[in-house]
Structures are given as C-alpha cells and as structure tokens.
C-alpha cells in the first residue's frame, strides 16, 4: 500500500459542499491500495501510522506518535498515488488496485483504525473530494508498505 502522511494542525474533507470528515491536530493520510495488496499490508500500514513518532515532545524532538498526543486520524483514499508517469505525460494508474479491491482494502483499513484509535475520520471512496489542511511543520512523509 502507498500512503502520504501529513502532520496537520487541522484537516477536513468536503464533498458536494458538505464536510465528511474533520480532525484537529493529527495525521492526514492519503491511501492507495496497489494490485496484489492484502489485509496484511493494511495492518502493517495502520501499525506504522499509530506508532510513527513525528509529533514533538517537550524538548521539541519528534518523539511522540499520534496515539501519544491523542491526535486525529483522517484517512482519505487516493488512487492517484499509484501514478506511473514513465511512459509519457499522461499518468497510467494500472498499478492501482481495481476499484472493488481498492474499496475493500480501504474499508478494511478504516474499520481496523476505528478499532485501534478513538479519533478516526474519512473521506468518501471514489468521490470528487476537496481536502483542506494546515500542514504542521511542514511534515510530509511518503510510506510504502510491501
């Protein structure tokens, strides 16, 4: 699975003028399932997200996780993370999981996250979403889970 993790002061997802998910301080995570991904990759991604130490401690060092700071987790599906631009100027998305499989894995990730963390919000799979965020730091980290 592919993801881009952004430490945020706040973030929200809007579809058709209505806010679907919103968090205060925490992590905005753009997520893409690739062909061949399974629940095992989703489980590894979630474990990494919950333990990733990218929040500051008293000394200003990135030493705390989203769990440590009781931050929010906003999970947003984004198949374009699988873009392949090596063949020209129009991206190919053949590496992304087919829509049914991508939705299944995204829904699985969200369900597992809600079991493990008290503050989980989402966007809407395959919707035209507007994602608003205030990146904190900025801290933006790409994560690939194989």
Structure description:
The chain has 146 residues and is of the alpha/beta class. The chain has helices at residues 39-51, 99-116, and strands at residues 2-15, 18-23, 26-32, 55-56, 62-64, 72-77, 120-122, 130-144. Helix 1 packs across helix 2 (99-116).
The poorly predicted ranges are none
Number of domains: 1
Give the topology string: H per helix, E per strand: EEEHEEEHEE
Which outline best applies?
A: globular
Q: What's the N-to-C terminus distance?
A: 7 Å
Q: What's the structural blueprint in terms of helices and strands?
A:
Layout: E1 2-15, E2 18-23, E3 26-32, H1 39-51, E4 55-56, E5 62-64, E6 72-77, H2 99-116, E7 120-122, E8 130-144
Parallel strand pairs: 3-6, 6-7
Antiparallel strand pairs: 1-2, 1-3, 1-8, 4-5
Helix pairs in contact: 1-2
Question: Summarize this, please?
Answer:
This protein has 146 residues and is an alpha/beta fold.
What are the main properties of this structure?
six-stranded mixed sheet, 146 residues, D-tyrosyl-trna(Tyr) Deacylase, Chain: A, alpha/beta, 8 strands, 2 helices, globular, two-stranded antiparallel ribbon
């Amino acid at each position: 699975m592919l993801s881009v993790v952004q430490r945020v002061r706040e973030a929200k997802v809007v579809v058709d003028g209505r806010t679907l998910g919103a968090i205060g301080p925490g992590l905005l995570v753009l997520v893409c399932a690739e062909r061949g991904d399974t629940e095992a990759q989703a489980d590894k991604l979630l474990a990494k997200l919950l333990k990733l130490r990218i929040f500051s401690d008293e000394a200003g060092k990135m030493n705390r996780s989203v769990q440590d700071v009781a931050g929010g987790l906003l999970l947003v599906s984004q198949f374009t993370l699988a873009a392949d631009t090596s063949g020209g100027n129009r991206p190919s998305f053949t590496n992304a999981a087919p829509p049914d499989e991508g939705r299944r894995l995204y829904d699985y990730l969200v369900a597992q996250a809600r079991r493990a963390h008290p503050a989980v919000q989402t966007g809407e799979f395959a919707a035209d979403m507007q994602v608003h965020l205030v990146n904190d730091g900025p801290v933006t980290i790409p994560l690939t889970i194989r």
